[in-house]
Amino acid sequence: ATARPLLEVQGIDVFYGAIHAIHGLSVIVNEGEIVTLIGSNGAGKTTALGAISRLLPIRSGDVLLDGRSLGSVPPHDVVRLGLAHVPERRRIFADLTVTENLEMGAFTVRSTADIASRMDEMFELFPRLAERRKQFGGTLSGGEQQMLAVARALMQRPRILLLDEPSMGLSPLFVERIFDIIETINKRGVTILLVEQNAHMALAIASRGYVLKNGMIVDQGSGARLRSDESIQAAYLGAH
Ligand code: ATP
């Protein structure tokens, strides 16, 4: 099958006031791929995802979803077009139960039967959440909250999921789990753009990766190539 770009980021620039955080960033994510964006603290990974999902304004360049410009699409409509974003530090609703958090994720879905079937699917994918369905979000462990954040985004049945540091702050066991789940979700047909500081694991599951430094792409290639690259190992894989 020929690769078809689902997401095309075309030379975007993003500023925070006078700070030029992202310089001419271009990224392509083909339908069905897992693509990762790696880089050190402050490289601009979070900013890039925010710009793609329209939470942050783009100064120049464009973002296309399935060939359509998101330039004038407001953030809540971006979700309807099939792009879901799980931000850093999860941001689940602490005072709502697991079930209620998932219902909030399905805000664009009208049919209650449809919501129920999606919820069943999430409880099958995340048995841990099923056991805790009546528990308040704020009382879940960090790993469970991350699972809930991912499940809530999946309630939209997105075509592409943007994940910002899903492994952050998790114990090694939960890190493994989260990466397994990302692969499972991808096999079920969801395209993934993954931002990670855990570059080693991210490159292991990604077909391709981009290396971001000071808001610019400094390298790109297959996950395997980047993983075996000595300069990348020295800069980003040393700690793992
Ligand atoms: P981290 O992994 O530490 O979150 P990152 O690669 O995601 O790093 P960003 O958070 O995107 O990096 O930050 C990119 C640059 O933009 C940094 O220099 C940062 O200081 C700056 N920046 C981020 N948010 C803001 C903001 N709200 N106001 C001003 N500058 C910001």
From TrEMBL:
Role noted for this protein: Involved in beta-(1-->2)glucan export. Transmembrane domains (TMD) form a pore in the inner membrane and the ATP-binding domain (NBD) is responsible for energy generation.
One Pfam family per UniProt: ABC_tran
ABC transporter domain mapped to chain residues: 7-239
Molecular function terms, GO-annotated: ATP binding
Lineage of the species this protein comes from: Bacteria, Pseudomonadati, Pseudomonadota, Alphaproteobacteria, Hyphomicrobiales
Family listed: Belongs to the ABC transporter superfamily.
UniProt keyword terms in alphabetical order: Amino-acid transport, ATP-binding, Nucleotide-binding, Transport
UniProt-recorded name of the protein: ABC transporter ATP-binding protein
InterPro entries: AAA+_ATPase, ABC_branched_ATPase_LivF/BraG, ABC_transporter-like_ATP-bd, ABC_transporter-like_CS, BCAA_Transport_ATP-bd_LivF, P-loop_NTPase
Key word Nucleotide-binding present: yes
